[in-house]
Write a structure and sequence with these properties.
The chain is mostly beta strands. 0% of the residues lie in helices and 59% in strands. Strands 2, 4, 5, 6, 9, 10 and 11 form a 7-stranded mixed β-sheet that branches. A 4-stranded antiparallel β-sheet has the order 1-3-8-7, with no helix packed on it.
Length: 117
């Protein structure tokens, strides 16, 4: 189970921090990431982080967004600065989790981010 939080309404140039916590009986976590889907558009990967801390970003968010994780809390974060109206979307976290049923790709419920101009 992944639970995302931290979305909201912010003015252009503002900041938000998203959090996504994995809960339940988890034996391991590999890659974690944040994706987004704007109205009428396909879902896209925004940022991802490996268990070792390697990161990659969508070109349009480089220098503005930072992904991080706390392995002791099974949580991934997305710090979003200098937000722009085109960042408006529903943001979804995902993670490769090892549970009693094996490895699987799990998704959070999504959190709305709205950036006003």
């Amino acid at each position: 189970q992944l639970q995302a939080s931290g979305g909201g309404l912010v003015q252009a140039g503002g900041s938000l921090r998203l959090s996504c916590a994995a809960s339940g009986i988890i034996f391991g976590i590999k890659d974690m990431g944040w994706n987004r889907q704007a109205p009428g558009k396909q879902r896209e990967l925004v940022a991802a982080i490996t268990s070792g801390g390697m990161v990659n970003y969508l070109d349009s968010v480089k220098g503005r967004f930072t992904i991080s994780r706390d392995n002791t809390k099974n949580t991934v974060y997305l710090q979003m600065n200098s937000l722009r109206p085109d960042d408006t979307a529903v943001y979804y976290c995902n993670a490769a989790l090892l549970s009693s049923t094996g490895w699987g790709d799990h998704w959070g419920q999504g959190t709305q981010v709205t950036v006003s101009s």
